[in-house]
Amino acid sequence: MVLFPNAKINIGLNIVERRADGYHNIETVMCPVKWCDILEIVPAQGNETTLTTTGRAVNCPPEKNLVMKAFYLFQKETGIGNVDIYLHKIIPDGAGLGGGSADAAFTLIGLNEIFECNLSKIQLASIASKIGADCPFFIYNEPQLATGIGTEFVPVKISLEDYSVLIVKPQVSVPTAQAYAGVTPMPSDYDLATAINLPITQWNGIIKNDFEKSVFLAYPEIEKVKQQIINMGADYVSMSGSGSAVYGIFSKNDILSEEIKALFPKCDIFYDKF
């Protein structure tokens, strides 16, 4: 079975409270985009499950990869047999795009189908929540207002069908722990669930990412990317997650790939329709 785990962007990200368990309560809208990895799951040739990665370098041994964590959690839950997994990485890591989380979630989805386990999305999301905060989102893989630590979801109806998205990831990556250390949690001064229903052209100045202020101070090249996308005429521009990727939502479709490459040399770039 071949699957295509996709990235996500965060529309707004409010860090509202530090919890007693050390995690943070957040408010964010997660939205899928078409930047995808390639994941293949086949019956095991040997007596154990294996993971082979190609494409972008993965900076961890296979046994610590989230894909393998997903497999072992699913095997413990269902008793399935072994498989060989092949992962071709395209989505950049350290970008705030959830690529690793998507790979893990799609592994659960694929195993559920291959072995005909018939677990519901709620059951799969419960397993995914043990892997990482972003993982359950990719089980549903549609726009969701996420609260709590990012694992409590309410579907949101936003239509981006007439828009394109440009995602630019500069060479730097932002450690998540560092990003959280730079913010002071506090209740948001706006209601994200209401603001997301405004016209996209009104999102700028209202819908914010709380990580941007401190991350831009530490990594001015990320702020530079955001300003460049603003200058291109995007309807809305924001950093995704804790960075370092920045995206712009465009209602126009006349951006040339040559123009993008010239503006953002040495950056990872994705541009496509929603």
Question: Brief description of this entry?
Answer:
This protein has helices at residues 66-78, 99-114, 121-128, 135-140, 176-181, 192-195, 212-218, 220-231, 257-263; strands at residues 2-3, 6-18, 24-36, 38-43, 50-55, 83-89, 144-147, 152-155, 164-169, 236-239, 246-250, 268-273. It has 274 residues and is an alpha+beta fold.
Essential attributes:
Ribosomal Protein S5, domain 2; 29% helix; 28% strand; 274 residues; Alpha-Beta Plaits; 9 helices; four-stranded antiparallel sheet; alpha+beta
Number of helical segments with 4 or more residues? 9
Strand order of the largest sheet: 1-4-6-5
Structurally, how many domains make up the residues?
2
Low-confidence stretches: none
Multimeric status of the protein = single chain
Question: Main beta sheet: strand number and arrangement?
Answer: 4 strands, mixed
Helix content: 25-40%
Structural class comes to alpha+beta
Helix and strand string, N-terminal first?
EEEEEHEHHHEEEHHHHEEHE
Strand content: 25-35%
Large-scale geometry: globular
CATH class category of the largest domain = Alpha Beta
What is the CA-CA span between the terminal residues?
A: 25 Å
Per CATH, which architecture of the largest domain?
2-Layer Sandwich
Plain-language structure description:
With 274 residues, the protein is of the alpha+beta class. The protein has two domains: 2-155, 2-Layer Sandwich (Ribosomal Protein S5, domain 2), CATH 3.30.230.10; 164-273, GHMP kinase, C-terminal domain (Alpha-Beta Plaits). It contains nine helices and twelve strands. The protein has helices at residues 66-78, 99-114, 121-128, 135-140, 176-181, 192-195, 212-218, 220-231, 257-263; strands spanning 2-3, 6-18, 24-36, 38-43, 50-55, 83-89, 144-147, 152-155, 164-169, 236-239, 246-250, 268-273. It has a four-stranded mixed β-sheet with strand order 1-4-6-5. Strands 2-3-7-8 form a four-stranded antiparallel β-sheet, with helices on one face. The longest helix has 16 residues, at 99-114.
